[in-house]
Design a protein that fits this description.
With 99 residues, this protein is mainly alpha-helical. It has a domain of 56 residues. It contains four helices and no strands. Helix 1 packs across helix 2. The longest helix is centred in the middle third of the chain and has 20 residues. The radius of gyration is 26 Å and the shape is elongated. 1% of the residues are buried. Belongs to the TacA antitoxin family. This is DUF1778 domain-containing protein. InterPro entries: Ribbon_hlx_hlx, TacA_1-like. Keywords: Toxin-antitoxin system.
């Protein structure tokens, strides 16, 4: 379950401040009252939910199904020797020969 959906059980010694317009403050206060939450709880839950959404998107890559299938097929295929890469590795002197 996400943190945003729970009451945070954390060390609450840190403080986060933000400057907003009176209009935005009024809207947030109305929404908090409608949600039966404190303004702090409402803002914290909304910010945590948004942060978790961003992090989920950052950790996931979506690709078309046919592209995904090509990637899987290439991983399953036997390795192909790349001569230019092999030469460069030998020239660098930092290679391990596969037996």
């Amino acid at each position: 379950m996400s943190r945003a959906s729970n009451t945070p059980a954390r060390d609450n010694r840190c403080r986060l401040e933000v400057r907003i317009s009176q209009e935005d403050k009024n809207l947030i206060e109305l929404a908090a009252r409608a949600s039966r939450e404190t303004v702090t709880g409402f803002v914290l839950h909304a910010a945590l939910e948004a942060a978790e959404d961003v992090m989920r998107r950052e950790q996931m890559t979506l690709v078309p199904a046919d592209f995904f299938d090509e990637i899987i097929d290439s991983l399953d295929a036997p390795p192909q020797r790349n001569e230019a890469l092999a030469r460069a590795a030998l020239e660098s002197g930092e290679t391990t020969q596969r037996k």
